[in-house]
Every structure is written in structure tokens, then in C-alpha cells.
Amino acid sequence: MLIALSHIQRLYRSDEVETTALLDIELGIEAGEFVAIMGPSGCGKSTLLNILGTIDRPTSGSYSFGGQELTELGEAALAAFRRENLGYVFQSFNLIDELTIEENIELALIYRRMPKAERRRRVAHAMDHVGIAHRARHYPSQLSGGQQQRAAIARAIVGEPRLILADEPTGNLDTENGAQVMDILQRLNDEGATIVMVTHSPSHADLAKRRVDMLDGQVVISVRNAI
Amino acid sequence: MFATILQTVLRQVRRHPLYVGLNVFGLALGIGVFLTLTLLVRYEYSFNAALPDVDRLARVDTHWTMPGTPPGEVAGSTFRAMPFLREDFPEIEAGIRFEDTDLQTEREGVFTSFASGLTDPGFFGVFGLKLLHGVPDQALARPDGLVLSERAAIRLFGTTEAMGRTVPINRAGVTVTHTVTGVLARRMTPDFLSDIEMLAPFSSEDVTTRFCFRSWASDCGRIYLKFRRRGDIDAVNARLRDFVIRHAAGAEGDHTAFGVHPEKVYGLSLAKLDEARFRDFHVLYAEDGVDRTVINSIGLMGLLALALACANAVNLATARAGLRAREVAIRKTLGASRRVLFGQFMGEALLVAAIAGVLGLALCEILVPEVASLTGEELVVRYGLVGVVLPLIVLVCGLASGVYPALVLSGYRPAAVLAAARMPSGGRGAARLRDGLVTGQFGIAITIVICMLVINHQTDFMRTADPGYVRDGLLIGSAMPGSDLAAQRRMLDALRAVPGVVTAGFGELAPRPGTKNLGTYSYDGPAGPVNVYLLQDTVGAGYFEVYRPRLLAGRWFDIARGQDDVPSRDDMRTRMANVVVNAGAVSRFGFASPDQAIGKIIRSGGWTTRIIGVIDDVRFESPRQAIYPEIILFDTLAQRPFSEPIPAIRFQGVAEAEMARRLNRAWAGILPDVASDFSSVDARMAAYYSGDERRGRIFTLGAAAALLIACMGLYGLAAFAAARRVHEIGIRKTLGATGRQIVALLLGDFLRPVMVACLLACPVAWVVMRRWLAGFDERIALTPAHFLIAVAGAFAIAILTVLGQTFHLARAEPARALRAE
Ligand SMILES: Nc1ncnc2c1ncn2[C@@H]1O[C@H](COP(=O)(O)OP(=O)(O)O)[C@@H](O)[C@H]1O
Ligand SMILES: [Mg+2]
């Protein structure tokens, strides 16, 4: 088992209200899986993904990754964990406006100790992989949404992570661009990457190997798709 | 329109108190400091300017070109020249002699000192000062007449209605009753007579007996002349060399003249009074003189403080502009025209500037009395000046801080803004502008801080530098009038008997000397005779133990050796005297070392002396001035009295104030009619340092303001950069950056302009301070420490500012930052 979540709970406290984003999540994910998470807006999908990505901490519960308990790690160790193991794709792309596409992608490697030449090589390779090499020197604002999302995917895969997390990667894209993105994700999964993706599109969910349905902060169904 | 603008500004105050606060208070601080320093500079520039007919007034100065000393201009001249000037130059409309002195009033044995001037009855014909009471032409006509300043009248009588009242004035032990014949009206602008509290006519005895009225070679005051036309001043000035040749020449041995060629050592010139304030800085014994560069630097500092504050406002406004882009885009989509938006933003900037202006004026009102007490000047807020300057500042600051954001914001294409995922930063141009402004701000602040450190170090150094004698535990009295051998002996005995006194001794010179005697001495060296102009002092038994000068070679005087005692005036031609010289004299005469000087014979006129000892240079005068080469004679009081000796005592085991009281009482036992004022070296020399110290304080104030403004700017920018970069930081952290890496990134971005600022500031400060220090004879070396402290301080402050803004940001969970979209 690559990932094991057990009794994961996430509460948000503001002055008066307490929101339970995740109630009690039990979830295991094997290496090489492609999991699609579905559910109505506000049911806790993004929160779950953020916790999987360690950019948010659960209020209680345990999260083990490759046998290592992550909830006990400190800030710096988590940062190191992220840079070695994870790749992210967001609905709103989250590219940095002031950097070129190439620089944005390189950002995922910049926090690792890696020679400049090696970084360049990997960035070029990742851009080829998603087909935006010709836009390397452009700024995000000069690209279409589909191109931006492909750049974001290039950034997610350039570090050759073990787990790719995608939060509604096709949510802001038209059908054609959405299909392209799904194509890339499937290819990555075929090449061995473990992928967890949130989506609202049943057809995109069907392209995954497993489907997890959520409701009010809980996992309700987990089904394996026929291949 | 105005209502809308007011509404927006109020809304911003509520929503962004930090931004509005930084903007308004930064600007107010800059404006307040600028106004205050401008008033101070204006005060300095208006010195003497309000004297009636000042453009036709001049002072007669003396130029000495004596062997062994660099030529120098002295503020003052012999009174001997007065009648000849009137005779030779019909261009002179009026002229008076003036001697600065302290007059003492005496009431039942209690003396009160007043800064005063002795002068001629025609005083008011030259200086048309207004009298509150009395008639100018007659006020000083009576020999017992006395003109009081308003302040002195109030001090003496509690009222300015002092006409006809009597004041007992004590001069050198003799009390003469004067009658108040005039009260000066208070003047608002400063001049060289501002400190004068009493004016009295010279006594006929002064005029007939005192050397400075009779001899070309002696001066005790200044001659002021009023010319018929301004152009006459230069014309007459050009003819003064011939004047000296005509009148100051005399036969060999005539003590009242300069021999056959007076022009070789002596010259006169006219110093225009309206230019005197700054020119006098380079004139000896002109104590009102100030360094124009320093005054201009203070003005510049005010201007820079204002520029810093303006830069801040521009900076914050452009940074804010990015945050408001969305608002603007939406307004535009809803149909606002570019012109309306432009007007709106300019209006906001002007309103903010106006509020800052009012606060700045309030700050100025608070600062001016502070600065006045720091500088000792009578500074007041002048609304005539402020009323013109302030609206101008507000307009300029408002326009400067409004125009860029207004242009940029009103020029945004709404589609681009709304389509962009995040708030725009204003583009690379704005980023460069912001960096440039931060660089400029810190550059200026660091320069000012370095200057402040150096100036304060130098003034501190002057106060504490080794003066060549031990100044702690030393008290110095007033000069004893006359040369009464018995009285001098009794005085010494009386002072030595005071409990707490270790030793007492006489000298004719003391820290901050009054009269000085200088004479030419010559040494027959191997390469021919060497002439050196030496300062002469005569000291008595006990002097060495009191002052404790450092003996470099030979020995000090010995009371047991008859050769050491200075010969009586009759014996001077026949008997050799032993003398001690200072290190300066040794090098002027060209002796290789102090030891080489021992035993050498030096002559003056028909008199022969032998050097028996060499002491290190002793500083009795301003640290700006070079120490004179000096010759010291010894007087045991066996037969020859001192001329107006100054007693000095070394004490132990008693508090200084108590010691001074005891000594004053002992003095009164011998000379009850002469005011006594035993005071410390520091008190006597204070006037030499006070100008530099005051200006040091102004620089400290300016430096603090500049630094504060620069920090406010940086703080604001850091806050905005943090707000603008929340999202970017979230992404970077998601990609594996640690909190420390994020802090380092943000710090790097901010410290780069600060570093450039340091690189620019250091050379500028170095050049400026080297020039300033060159004006001191005794000065500190410019060390890297001054620069390092300022640079380290700037970095520390910048780092703290940025850390304060970014630390929590760098630590936050990235998910929150990404959600904050
Ligand atoms: N930072 C937060 N503060 C308060 N409530 C939050 C926060 N983040 C998410 N929530 C709440 O948690 C619940 C789950 O949110 P989220 O995981 O974003 O839902 P979704 O399934 O649409 O991605 C929602 O009710 C949301 O309002
Ligand atoms: Mg979501």
C-alpha cells in the first residue's frame, strides 16, 4: 500500500462556526493506481487532496506514505517530502505570472539540489511530453487555458514524482482541451505514476482505474472501474 | 466630486489603515522635518540681514603675516586706525569702535554678568537699531549712559520701563553708577548684536590709557563703518594697503607701530556685514561664524527627508495601484471614463497629501522649540514662509504620488486585468521604479547616518581628546586686574589655603584665553636665522603641578634656580632667561627633536633666552584652530608681578561646585570688588564645541527622521509585496520550498536595493565627511567602523522590517494561501 489514510478528520474553526470538512476518512491507495474522486461541491474533495499533498494538516488521524507516518513530520521535512514525491495540478493552473513557462516548470526542481544542465534537460523533456515546448519563453498570461494547464502538468511531472494530485484539472477547460489533459494523465499513469484526481465529469472519472465518491466529508463508495 | 473622493479616502482608512497610516504619517514626518530645517536654514541665512542699511556696513579686519605661522584674518582691528580712516576716506558716513565684554552689575557684593558692548556715542548712527525708550542720538552721549536690551531691563528691573534708573557697573574692581538712557526694542531676526544685553560708552580713561587705542600692534575690539554707498566698501578696501603704509609705519623700536614696512606683516580689510555669517567661519575670533556647507547640508537634509517621504508616497501608491486594479477594471466595465478615474485618483492623492501637510505643520510646531533649545537659536515658526511653502509641498507631493498610479490605473485595459488570475504588480516598470525608490531612500538615509556617526564621533572626540594637560580636577579663575605684586602673592596664599586645594599657580594664559601676546623670536641655525612668531605665556610656581603638561625633554622651571626667574623689565637686556617651549615651536625652529632644542639660544629684540625644557602642545583654544608655537617664561613673584594673571588650582576630595564656591569666597577676601568665577576647563571651552555639537544634534535628528521614513517605506512595501505574493508563496511551498527558503527569497528581493544603496552611500559619505573633518586641526580618522555600523544598522532594520512582514506568511500552510485567491 502506497498511501494509507486512517481516521482522518479536518475541522475548520472560525470565530463562531465550526465546519467539518472531513469527518472520518479511511482510504488506501496502491502504487500505480489512478483514482478519481467525485462528489458535490463542498463535500471535502479539495481538502482531502490538500491533506494528501501535505499542504494542509489533518486535525486528527494518521497518514502514512510508503510506510512513513507523515503527520509527525515537521515543516522542513514535509517540504522535502513534497519536493521528492509529489506533483500538483490545480483547477486554476497556479502558474506564477512573473515567470516564463520554462521558469515555472523549473521551479519544481529549483528546491532540489540538481545541476543546472540536468534541470534544463528535464524541463525540456517535460515540455515535450505535454507539447508546449514552443511556448517555453512565454509568460502564462500569453497562453490559452489549455496550454497553461499543460504547462502546470509539465511542472507536476518534471520532478518524476511518485504521486500526482490533480484538483479538477479539466474544470476550467473546454471539452477538447479537457480530453487532451486526460490523455496526458492516462499516459503518465501507464508509465507508472500514481494519480489522484478530483473531477466533476463522470466521463473523465471513467477513464480512471478507481472511483471514490464523497459526501459531507466522508467516503461513501469506492469502486474499481472495469478496464 | 470632492464628496466622492472624501468617501473613497475614508473607506480606505477603514479598510487599509496600515497603508493610509504609513502614507500619511510618513509624508507628515517628511513635511514636518523639512519645514523645521528650512526655518533653521532661513534663520542662518537671515543673520544680520535685518540690520538697517546692512548692505552699507562693514567691519575692519586685520591680516597678520607673521613668520612661522600661516597668514590669518582676525575679526577686529586696533582702535588706533579709527581717526585716520575717517580722515582719509570721505566715503565713510559714520564709524564706531566696539569692544565685546562682560559688564558686571554689583549689588551688595553680588555680581551679575551681562554680555555687553563698550562703544562710541555714534553707535546708533551706524547701527540704526530701534529703541523702545530713549533717543538714539543721545543714548550713549553721556559718559554714564547705559542702553539695555529688553531682556536685561526685565532681568534688572522686572519691566522695560527702566529709563532714568541707575545701575552700578563694576569694571576691574571699580564701581561706576550708570543711568539707563535707552532700552533696545527686541528684534525678530538674528544679528551679531543679538546677544548684547548692555551698551555703554568707553570711559575717557579707556581711550587715553589702553594700548589698543594707541598702538597699531594691539587690538581689543572691532571697528564698524557705514559707507555712503555699497560700492564704496570695495573701493576703500582696495586702498587700505596704502593706508597701512601711510599710518602704521614708525621708527625702529616704536612699540606703537610696525617699523618701516608695516605692510609686510600687517594688513587691514573690510568685511561686509551682510556676508559675515558664513565668511566669518574662516575668520579668527569671529565667534558668530558658521560653516555654510554645514548649514546647506542641514537644508539639504530637510529636502531629502521630504524627498524620501514623497518617494514613499509614490511607492506605496504604485504598490497599492496593483491591489486596486480589479476595482478599476470593474468600474471601467461599468462605464467610468479614463478622465473621471484619473481625476478621482489625483484627488485622493492630493487629499491625503493635504492631511499629511496639516499634520506636518503640527509636527513642525512641536519640533521648532525642540530644535531651538538644541541649537540655542531663537527659532520660531514663521507663517509668512510656511504659508507659501506648505501648499507648494502638498501640491508637489500630491501630484508626485498621484500621477503615476492615476496614469497606470486609469490606463488599465479591464479585460486584461479581469482575465489575469491574480492582481497585477503594475508590471516590470513599476517594480523597477519601486526598487529604485527603495535604493534612493536607503542611500540617502545611510549617507545621513554615516555623517551623523562621524560628526558625533568628532564632537565627542574634541571634548575628550587629550588637550596636553590634565583637565579633570582643575578650576580656573578670572584674570586678576592690574599688576600688583603684593596682591598677587596674597591671592596665591589665600587660594592655596582653601581646604581641598592641592596646588595653585598663576599663568597669563588659560583655556579660552582673553588677551594674548605674540612676538617674533629668532634662532641662529646652521642655515641662517629662523624667525618664528611665538605665543608668549608667563607662568608661576605651582603651574606645572596644576596643569600637569607633558615634559618631552629637558626640565621644568625650578624655583631654586635664579636663572629660571624672568628678569625684571630693566634687566631684560642684560640677563639671559631660561624658557620652556612647546613641541610646535621645536618643529617650527627646525630642531630635529625636543632633545635637540635643549640648550639652544633664541632671541627677541635685544633679549636672549635659553631653552631648558620642551613640553607637548597644550590646547587652550578651539580644536578647529592650529595650536600656536609657544614660549613660556617663569615668574617666581620674587620681584616681578604678572600682568593680569589667571589663577588655576588643582583640587581633590571636594565636589567641583563646592570647590568653586570656596575659591570664589577666598578670592572675595583678597579682591572683594572684582567678580570671581572659578570654572572648569569644560565650562570655559564649551563655546568652542557647542556649535559643532548643536549641529551634531540636528544631524542626529535628521538621521533618525530619514531612517524612520525609509523604514516606513520599506515596511509598507514589504507588506504589499507580501500581500501580492501570498499566492506565489503558496505555489512555491507546494512545490517543496521550505519556510526558510521563502524568507530568504523575500529578503533577497528586498535587500538587493538596500545593498546597492550602501554601495552608493558609502563613497558619498566618505567624500563629504573627509571635507568636513579637514576643517579641524585635531580630528578623528575616518574608519571603516563608521561605515560598517551604518550599513549593518540599515541591513538589520531592513531585515527586521521584512521579516516582520513575511515570517508568518512563510510559515503558513500553503493550502490557505492558494485558497485565498
Ligand atoms: N480555510 C477554510 N476555512 C473554513 N472553511 C473551509 C476552509 N476550506 C474549506 N472549508 C470548508 O470545508 C468544506 C470542504 O471544502 P472543499 O474541500 O474545498 O470542498 P470541495 O469538495 O468543493 O473541494 C466546505 O464546506 C468549505 O466551506
Ligand atoms: Mg474543490
From TrEMBL, chain A:
Keywords: ATP-binding, Cell inner membrane, Cell membrane, Membrane, Nucleotide-binding, Transport
Keyword Aminoacyl-tRNA synthetase among record annotations: no
A Gene Ontology cellular-component term: plasma membrane
Pfam families in the cross-refs: ABC_tran
Record field: transmembrane: none
Taxonomic superkingdom: Bacteria
Any one GO molecular function term: ATP hydrolysis activity
Signal sequence region: none
ABC transporter domain span: 6-227
Classification via InterPro entries: AAA+_ATPase, ABC_transporter-like_ATP-bd, ABC_transporter-like_CS, ABC_transpr_LolD-like, MacB-like_ATP-bd, P-loop_NTPase
Stated family: Belongs to the ABC transporter superfamily. Macrolide exporter (TC 3.A.1.122) family.
Cited PANTHER family: ABC TRANSPORTER ATP-BINDING PROTEIN YTRE (PTHR24220:SF648), IMPORT ATP-BINDING PROTEIN (PTHR24220)
Name the record gives this protein: ABC transporter ATP-binding protein
Species this protein is from: Gluconacetobacter takamatsuzukensis
